[in-house]
Every structure is written in C-alpha cells, then in structure tokens.
C-alpha cells in the first residue's frame, strides 16, 4: 500500500541502554519490500539494544538497495524460487540450494550467530536450512493469514512464530506462536477517528506501482458518482505508469479530488479518508488496522497461495472490511458498495473499530525481545 521505503531505515542514535551481552543475529528473507522492511524495523530495534544484525539476500532483490542504505551488512547468495516456476528455474534452484546453504552455514559459524530471524520467501531457504542443521534457533515472522511456502515447510522446527492473525497459529506447533502483528510506521497508530462529514472521501490505492484493476474500476465509476446525489471526494494513487492518462481523464470528470502517481504521506491520506479501497497484502492490512480505517479489499488474484484473499477474508470475518474480488471489481459494483457504506455511518464506525482492534503496536520491539529470549535460551 505505502511505498515500503518510507519506513525509517537510517541508522538510529546510539542506544543508551545495552544488553548484558551483545549478540549477532542473521536476518533472512528478501526480494520484496514486504519481506525486507519489517525485518529492517526489527534489526534496527536490536541495534538500538546494542546487538549486531546482518542480512542474507540476493543481488537482484530489493534488499540489495534497502539493506545497505539502512546501514546493515548484506551477504549475497544465489537462489531462486521453487513454487510456480518452470522446470529450468526449478533445476537451477536445486543446484544453487546446497551451495548457498553451505555458505550460510559458514556465516553462522564465523559470525557466531545467536538466532536467525526469517520473513519467509525463497531467499530465506538456505540460511534457515543452515540454521536448523547447526541447531541455531529460528524465529519466523508470518504476516499473512496463511503462511508462505518456506514457513509452512519449516513450521515444526521453528523456535517461535510471530503472527498477525490468530488463525495462523494452527500452522505451527502449539505454544510456539505469539500474536505480535507486523511492524508498521508509528504515524498510522496516531490517525484519529474520522467523524462523518461531507464530502465523503474515498482513498483508492493499488500500492506504489498501482493496480490495473483498481485503476480501471475507479475510472468506470467516475461518471456514476458524478450522476449520483452523493457528494464524494476521490483521492486515487494510480502508480506512475497510468498517472498521466488517468489525471487527464479525472480532470474532465467534474469530480472533486485528485489523482496522484504516488502518495508520500500515506498516514495523512488515511486520516482524511472515510473509506479506503485497496489490495490486501500484509503491509496494507496492517496499516488499515493501525489507522482504524474501514475498507473495501480487492485481493491481488495471483498472490502466492492466495494469501491476499485469506488476509481479506480475515478482515471481513472481523467486521473490519468488505470484500470485492478482482474479477468482481467494476465501476458499477465499486460505486454500489461505496454508496451503501456512505449511507450507513454506523456501519462505517463499526468497521473502523473492528479494524483498530486488529492492530498490534510495538511489533518490532516485541520481536526483538523474543530474539533476545531465544538467544539466551
């Protein structure tokens, strides 16, 4: 939803309170901002506590930019995916796996690693396997309702699993999970409740790169909103590719609002919104919960293991959101759902309260505490 690089990744000030014994921690997981930025938040908290942290990732993943800029060492390995890839990629990955695992074992030994923190994903495979072989404790953070491929395969062996949805606990051994949530920028927790008012403000965002489905449905809805007796203001983050065309079309629609390629201050955009229309990745739903905003969720249909759909379903069960799947997302259906919610302020208030109840402040701090605990054990 937001550009993950908005999270603080600059080196923090020196800690005024250090632990009794400084330790080293390996962070595994990469490829996307959704894997990297929460891990950086936990690593930064450990650094504030006087520990050392380093990352293992690939050169092509986003970690190659974000990790060094945050001031953390990055060790590079060669590894690819095994799920939903062609046979050539499968063969290449199987050849890379033992080499990358042996390299990770050497890192564990030479750095005297006390524990491994994994966000999952194929990049986490070699260092996590190496840790299990060397009996180094592994702590995983699973932000989705259904764990990804790597975390499902290692579930029985992890020392602790930090989850965002209560139902996720069933994938891990009893007594090893804790509901910590996903690290989210503190500004989202400061978003105040939105009293009913005119115009009704709708925030539409498909993330930093935009969503073709949401963009098209929003554009189809403009003439319907224009003709309806509903005063609305639409703020739409299109992503850079569609921005010029959508901005020109919106300026001709006669509607109040603005079309933007990217929203820098997403917490402020949440604060102004009565309703958010977005995808349902782990970062997006964590931000909705932290801000306490009602939403219409349209899961990305090609997400691995349909995890975005499962995230959305968890929010719907909690009463925090409405679900409009990708194949259902049209301008007419979007308008109908928005209009019904706009006409029912009490329902919006209940959804907002239900979303806020799913929030978990202090996730990075608690994750760091758990890593310290398993390292001491």
Search tags:
Rossmann fold; 377 residues; alpha/beta; 2 domains; 14 helices
What features would you describe in this structure?
With 377 residues, the chain is an alpha/beta fold. It folds into 2 domains: 4-183 and 362-376, Rossmann fold (3-Layer(aba) Sandwich), CATH 3.40.50.2000; 187-357, Rossmann fold. The protein is built from 14 helices and 13 strands. It has helices at 33-48, 63-69, 87-110, 125-133, 149-154, 186-189, 212-227, 243-251, 266-272, 282-291, 307-318, 331-342, 345-357, 363-376; strands at 24-28, 52-57, 74-76, 113-118, 138-142, 160-163, 177-179, 200-205, 232-237, 256-260, 275-278, 295-297, 321-323. α1 (33-48) packs across α14 (363-376) and α10 (282-291) packs across α13 (345-357). The longest helix is centred in the N-terminal third of the chain and has 24 residues, at 87-110. The radius of gyration is 21 Å and the shape is elongated. The two termini are 37 Å apart. Mean pLDDT is 88; it is low at 1-19.
């Amino acid at each position: 939803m937001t550009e993950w690089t908005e999270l603080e990744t600059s080196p923090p000030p020196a800690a005024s309170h250090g632990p009794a014994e400084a330790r080293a921690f390996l962070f595994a997981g990469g490829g996307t901002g959704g894997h990297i930025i929460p891990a950086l938040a936990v690593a930064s908290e450990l650094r504030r506590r006087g520990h050392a942290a380093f990352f293992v990732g690939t050169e092509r993943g986003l970690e190659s930019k974000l990790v060094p800029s945050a001031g953390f060492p990055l060790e590079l390995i060669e590894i690819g995916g095994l799920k939903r890839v062609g046979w050539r990629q499968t063969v290449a990955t199987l050849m890379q796996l033992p080499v990358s695992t042996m390299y990770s074992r050497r890192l564990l030994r030479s750095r005297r690693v006390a524990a491994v923190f994994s966000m999952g994903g194929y990049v986490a495979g070699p260092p996590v396997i190496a840790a299990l072989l060397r009996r180094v404790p592994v702590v995983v953070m699973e932000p989705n309702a259904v764990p990804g491929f790597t975390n499902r395969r290692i579930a029985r062996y992890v020392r602790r699993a930090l989850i965002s949805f209560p139902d996720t606990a069933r994938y891990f051994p009893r007594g090893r999970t804790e509901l910590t949530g996903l690290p989210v920028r503190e500004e989202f927790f400061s978003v105040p409740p939105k009293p009913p008012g005119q115009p009704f403000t709708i925030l539409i965002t498909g993330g930093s790169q935009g969503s073709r489905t949401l963009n098209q449905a929003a554009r189809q809805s403009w003439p319907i909103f224009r003709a309806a007796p509903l005063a609305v203001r639409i703020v739409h983050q299109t992503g850079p590719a569609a921005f010029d065309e959508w901005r020109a079309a919106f300026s001709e629609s006669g509607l109040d609002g603005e079309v933007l390629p990217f929203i820098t201050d997403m917490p402020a955009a949440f604060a102004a919104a009565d309703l958010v229309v977005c995808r349902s990745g782990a970062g997006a739903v964590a931000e909705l919960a932290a801000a306490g905003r009602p939403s219409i969720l349209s899961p990305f249909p090609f997400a691995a293991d349909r995890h975005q759909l499962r995230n959305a379903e968890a929010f719907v069960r909690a009463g925090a959101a409405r679900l409009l799947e990708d194949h259902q997302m049209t301008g007419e259906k979007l308008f109908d759902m928005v209009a019904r919610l706009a006409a029912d302020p009490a329902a919006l208030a209940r959804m907002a309260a239900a979303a806020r109840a799913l929030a978990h402040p202090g996730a990075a701090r608690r994750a760091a505490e758990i890593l310290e605990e398993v390292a001491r054990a």
